């Protein structure tokens, strides 16, 4: 048997408040947390399938004891990595000053060290926003990788749907127009590569692990999109996911697949989330689909955390073309 290609699995642990704020709900700050319910289901399913996980944590939740306890249940997995997903999950980091960005990244960095006990070396920007200022902050603080690129052909459509659905007004709405990496996102590579960024007059490397999309067509293949398809037809979603993984194998694309908490929640679990794509599905049906998809990923690839994925790439990958500058 040939050796399986390495892939990675990550989760953006976005809490309900982040979704409700993005939807323009004024009561977002007082909303309940679904992290205890979601993390328990994630730990059960990934534990059963013996899958590792990189979790991108939002600093704001690390100030809440019950959420920290929920996050600590990831210790039950055979392997997990705590990574950084900013302090306030503001999807317009491209509009912030460098000191503001530094605070968004490093406050969460320090909170991860004090609550989880490990030093994060990976970052993903909320809303797949990835300006040079963020990369410089990461390099200065000895980060190994950034994971903020989502090189999809549907970014302009996703952004249009977001803007049509949200109640955001004025300045916030203007800022949201660069969501999903602006119009240049599709010019970025669909496979891991090493960036070279100038920081304080010196060019230094930073690994970049894009959220993998379908090779060639660049349609999304992460789990929230595939469960959204499954809410219309489980059979079509399974065929799409199966052929996506096959195309990754055929093109030698080491896939980095992305989870979100709603992938483990059904419509019975949270009525506040009903507007979110895929949240009309019943819990049992969604969990059963997720178990199938994760098991398929586990069988077809040698799945690691993202940090482990970067370690294998550092020795096996030649330099690849530089991404589009935004
Ligand atoms: Zn997020």
From TrEMBL:
Entry superkingdom: Bacteria
Coiled coil: none
One GO molecular-function entry: hydrolase activity, acting on carbon-nitrogen (but not peptide) bonds
InterPro entries cross-referenced by the UniProt entry: Glyco_hydro/deAcase_b/a-brl (IPR011330), NODB_dom (IPR002509)
NodB homology domain sequence ranges: 26-156
GO BP term, pick one: carbohydrate metabolic process
SUPFAM superfamilies: Glycoside hydrolase/deacetylase
Record-given protein name: Polysaccharides degradation
Organism: Rhodopirellula islandica
